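#lab-general

N.A. 3:47 PM
ok so I finally got the sequence cleaned up, no stray characters, all 114 residues accounted for. can someone with queue access submit it? mine expired

B.Y. 3:52 PM
send it over

N.A. 3:53 PM
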Amino acid sequence: MGKKINNSAEKQYERISEMLDKLTDECLNQDIDYNGEGSRNSAYIHYTNRDIVNACTIFNSILSNRMAHDMIKGHNDKEINSKEIEKAGKQIRQIVLDMTKLDTHKIVEYYNEK
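B.Y. 4:20 PM
back already:
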């Protein structure tokens, strides 16, 4: 018999997964809701610095957890260790910095923005 999953962690996962599903649906449907015509250029949402950092934080959390899970379960062809997970986080930070000039390491500044 396999290990029993921590009930608290399972509930947290289910709650987060449900929120991500709803958020994804909203993002995918934003242009249709904007003017009812569904034009790919019909929706423009001004995401704040905080929104971008929130999205990066969520993505980094999911990616790191998935990489750690795969490492523990041996689901990867190559060995992924904590240095690989850290490298992925740095790559995400660099992409965001290059594209938006936002440094995700300055999270506190962005969380104080309204």
